[in-house]
Amino acid sequence: MIVDDSPTMRALISTLLSRDPDIEVIGTAHNAPMARQMIKELDPDVITLDIEMPHMNGLDFLEKIMKLRPMPVVMVSTLTHKGAEATVRALELGAVDCYGKPSGGMREILCTDDGALAEIVKQASRRRRPPVAVARPRPPEEFIGNGRMVAIGSSTGGVEALIQLLQGYPATCPPTVIVQHMPAAFTPALAARLNGSGLATVTEADDGMPLRTGHVYLAPGGERHALIAGSADNAYVRLVEAPPVSGHRPSVNVLFRSAAQTLGERAVGVILTGMGADGAQGLLEMKEAGASTLAQDEASCVVYGMPKVAAEIGAADEILSIDRMSQRILKLCSA
User: Fold this and answer.
1) pTM for the whole structure
2) Which of 30, 50, 113, 155 is catalytic?
3) What does the DSSP 8-state code read for residue 223?
4) CATH of the domain at 46
């Protein structure tokens, strides 16, 4: 079901989704009251939801859905600073994924989507669980690192998982680099939200940034891959323009391979919830280079894709629920 106040966007989204034979658009609504009634009558598998709507905005409506009738929701948001902040908040509230609301003429949009929205909706329909309240992990009162660094990869459901993981990080956390599959317009807002989720300092990575204790670096979405370069004693972030790998840019595989090559046994690799297989092979390469490797378990994943493949190929030393992940990372990185 499509919920959007714009008749043009409702028609466009319907057209993009109806191209896929596995998807049936069973209804459209232009505001929250209408959508609420239609949800009761039609019981859709997935909702696409606009953020800016009359009567009740999409965030307020999403919060009510997640409390009263949890179901998969894909946010369709404008690629603006305000839209990005709202989208990150929606993902934190329990939305499965986001899709940047396209701009430009109808013909251009129809030619450039290439099935992206339909794939997001299909993956959303397979989400493994409704969002549940979880206890906030407590960071240790004192933490001294052993020189190890952390590389994390995540995709669908990753915003929730990353917030929870970083809530357990102390101010003196090990240097950590994250690749989260997300449109370029949204990663600055995600970095800002993650920065407020715990004691560590989280920034959107820039080329050449040194990896320092107490800092977490989020790879920017867009045209560049994020790598860990230099040496184990003098590591820094490299942002490299190159074609997509595993269908993504930045790619988790690229990050993990660079960690294997640059850090070897002085790295910890972590693969979290997400669709597809990006990161699984790179995690295996980290393990073969002597790094410790962790994967999120099926029960706590929104989409058990990337960690599942990592587990199947033997890339993960340990498989853990998300509420135990930060504690285990810190133990591996503790002096």
Assistant:
1) 0.91
2) 155
3) S
4) 3.40.50.2300
